[in-house]
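Reply to dn_fold:

You asked what the input looked like. This is it:
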Amino acid sequence: MHFSPDRPTFFVNPDYLPMVGASKPVIDPATLETVGAIAAASDGEIDAVLTAATKAQLAWKKLDAKSRAKHLHAVANAIEAANFTHCAELMVREMGKPYPEAIGEIANCAPIFRYYAEMARDDAGKVAGTTQAGSFQYARYEPYGVSVHIMPYNFPILLMCWTVAASLAAGNACIIKPAEVTTLSTLDYMTVFRSLPEGLVSCLPGGAATAQALIASDRTHAVAFTGSVAAGKMVAVACAERMKPCVIEAGGSDPLIISQHAPLDVAAAGSVTAAFHLTGQVCTSAERFFVVDAVHDRFVELFAERTRALRIGDGMDKTEIGPLVSEAARAKVMRLVDDAIANGAKAITGGRIPPAHNTGWFYEPTILTSVSPDMAIVREECFGRSQPSAGSRISTRRSGSPTTAPSGSALRSSPRIWPRRTTRPNGWRPAWSGSTIT
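and this is what came back:
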């Protein structure tokens, strides 16, 4: 069976299979047109995927690392040889990102499989120090078994490849539970795995119930999750109750600090990317800006000037800013912006639905000033195109976090910092270390 966006399907390598559940339309967030249809996995479909993965993993784990590496390089070869135009277009129409970002995400995936292919060849264990004369002690790494990969919508292919490539290299089978809104592009991408053994990789559409069933199953042994803090907590608890290892990548609300001696032209340009890449729907987006008084007004002027130059529109057109992923996502941004303005914040630019884009879930890139730490927009992850800027909130003498976040919240993030411009042998260049620019 060939994949068609109009027919709800799931994937068990190497085949697409029809789904029996009720069909649900996939809506383009820019045009509100129907893109295709999906369905949630039934109990029988979940069982079929688990059975296939368990059988495939028993043989996969017995392969030596060199043989598994050869398989992963074959996946990389398939990615490099494929034409992903249709996959990228589906991604744009499902979740709204501009086409260059969609095709760029997919183009970055082949090296991931090559990296883990070679890493697994050299990292299979370690020799430990002895505890008594004549003994030899070592640790050998063994695969977990069947791994579950619960994916987000913002980078549905790239982030999936990060965890799937690592898990395959270690000897595991992989079951991918895509985000509902990017199910079609994820399914379309599955053809790159067809060189792998039958049943080793599966893609199982569905919502929270599907994810819960996969986590709860005795036939899965590890979980990789990327998504919201709230969902991440539930996944972590469910895994802990079963002593099942998990990797959780949740959200954040990153601060960006502009110091007195920052190169403001560079800082403003970088801030536009940090704030509004993928319409701000990135866990590492800069959402809170802290600007020293001496440069606050000039920085905000440059930041706003560059922000107003961003083109808003359908991701298939020449635009930098597409729609938010859903009506609910836009409603959250509007709630936070409206609350901030009602409590004294000022919108320097944006703060409204663009007049030229009444259809779809568009919202203008927004910069707020005169914000305070008690405002919801400072304390919650916005995950959208609104950035508060706080003047008179830090000084060059102050250290530590610029704001106090609630314990256990998503706001304890490493800051990005633009400090002094320095002269270096090859001229000034920003050098990244983690999420700090020095």
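The chain has a mean pLDDT of 87.
Hope that clears it up.
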